[in-house]
Each structure stands twice: as structure tokens, then as C-alpha cells.
Design brief:
This protein is of the alpha/beta class. Helix content is 38%, strand content 14%. It folds into 2 domains: 309 residues, TIM Barrel; 32 residues, no CATH class. The two termini are 32 Å apart.
Amino acid sequence: MHYKLFGKSGLRVSELCLGAMTFGLEWGTGADKSESKRLFDAFAQAGGNFIDTANRYTEGSSERFLADFVATQRDYFVLATKYTLYDRPDDPNASGNHRKNLMRSVEGSLRRLNTDYIDLLWVHAWDFTTSPEEVMRGLDDLVRAGKVHYIGISDTPAWIVAQANTLAELRGWTAFVGLQIEYSLIQRSPERDLLPMARHFGLSITPWSPLGAGILTGKYNEGMIAGGRLSEKSVKFNERNLQIARQVSTLAQEMGVSPAQVALQWLRQQGPDIIPIIGARNLAQLEDALGCLSVSLNEAQLQDLETISQIDLGFPHDFLRSEGVRRVSFGNFYDKIEHRLKG
């Protein structure tokens, strides 16, 4: 395991992040405490120090498990948790981005994690009812109080993140150093605006669902058959995504590795700022994911995956990249000018 600086900070985190959403059985798909401990220990033994959880995960069990797992080495691990999602669905102020929920949620996480500080606090999702000024000032207050070291934002439109970080810079408040998004070979829409925005602000990017809800592992390559058709349980189960998964599996077989390792390594090779969040319900799944650290894709392999999974960037990106628009914007000099901010 190697380590990366997180965003523009000096924080050193492992090149993979362990997702702890599966720590606990409350949601019916996770691992019990003993299996969660085996997952945690295997990740730590591989050199991993970056753990991602949230106040909401498995009704708080994820944070409580982690409190026990890191107790003897709290300062070694980089614990990231989140606020926004509800703890109590019958309380109108027990969810959202606003200051009351922020302070309440963080205090709850500190108790469950049995710690005095949170290394990285994520805004879990944008609620469109709280101003960026209120969010950024509240987060800055927590950093100044020593309860939070760094802040990041998840599942939020690019223009809001840009507004928030610009505001923080103007006011002298703490700015976001990380962006958490869904990103994989079957979900490349962040390439339109979220990734360029993150790179402009120097944010590290921690993709969730890097295996596309399991599709990229190859286990659904024959489709989810329901009455002779693909199941409609998820919009992800469509023929396009299955074709991508089949290509990943074919490439994996040629390389002698697993499809999950190919999918994760494709993501890692999208840039040095990418730190995938890997999740698992058992030790075999985690060990398979960790194997991506020993995999490398060559240019031809990357191009094959690029071709089958490519998306239209849409307006204005395709318009501005067209030869005609570049011609009238630069005259005869497009290829003769250094492009500091490439589109």
C-alpha cells in the first residue's frame, strides 16, 4: 500500500479507502462484528489507514464497531464520517445540511466513535434548503473547535461545491479538500462537470460503488432474468452495462486476474487524485479488491474500456471541443498555445 496526500492538505491516506457501510447486520446485507473485525484487520495489515463511515450506516453500528477496532491505535487511523442523513425520521431537524443537525450529528458520531475528533467530515448529500454560507461557517467552527480536522463533500452538484469553496476562500474559512461521488466504468457522468471542478480546486476524489453495484464483478453477465427479460429492479441492470461488464471479464481472463481488480484498476488509473472506496461483506471479497494494487492496465486495455464505456459529455462540452468552435475561438493558434486549463 502506498499513500497519497489528501487534496491540498498534508494528510496522508492510503491509496485505497475501506468503506464501512457493511459493518453491521441492521440493513440485512452486511457483516457481523467478528467478520467486520476480520475485514478491518486485513485492510490494516495491507497498510490501509483510511476508513469511511457515516452516522446513518447500519443505524450507527458501523461507527460503534469502528470505535472498538481503532481504540488502541486511534491516532494511526484516518476516520471519515458524514452528516446530513437522518438519525430519527420523525424529527424534522434530525436530518439536513443545516447547523442544528450538523452540530447534533457530529456530537452523536463522536460518542459512537468514542473519540475526541473526526479526521474527515463529509457533507453526505446536498439538501437544497440550506445556504452554502451556513454550511461552510458551521463546518469551519467545528474545525476551529478541534472536533474536525478536514472537510469534504459528497453527492452534490459541481456548481454548489465550486460556490462553497470560493466562499470559504473569500471568508477565510476551511475549504473542502475532498469530493465523494459515484464513479465507475458504468457511471462516468461525473466526467462532465464534477471531475473537472474537483481538479480545479485540487480535491481528492473518493468514488463509491466502484464496481457498479456488483455488475462489474461479472456475476450478472448473463443478466438478471425475470420472465425472460432483464430484471427492472435497478436501472443499472441494462444491456449497455452488461456489455461493459462482459468486456471487463474478458480482459480479466486474458490477464489472469479478477474482473473486480480490472474495474478498480481502471478507476485508479484515471488520475492520481482518485482513491476508490472498497467495500466487502466477507474477507474473500476484500482480498480480491486489494489485489488491484498488483494490477496495471496498458494503453490498449485502457482504450478498449474507454471505447465500450464512453459517454457523451453533452452541451457545452462537446460544442466547445468541436473543431469549428475551436477555430473561431483561437484562429490558427489552438495547437500553438499552452492550455493551462484543459477542457
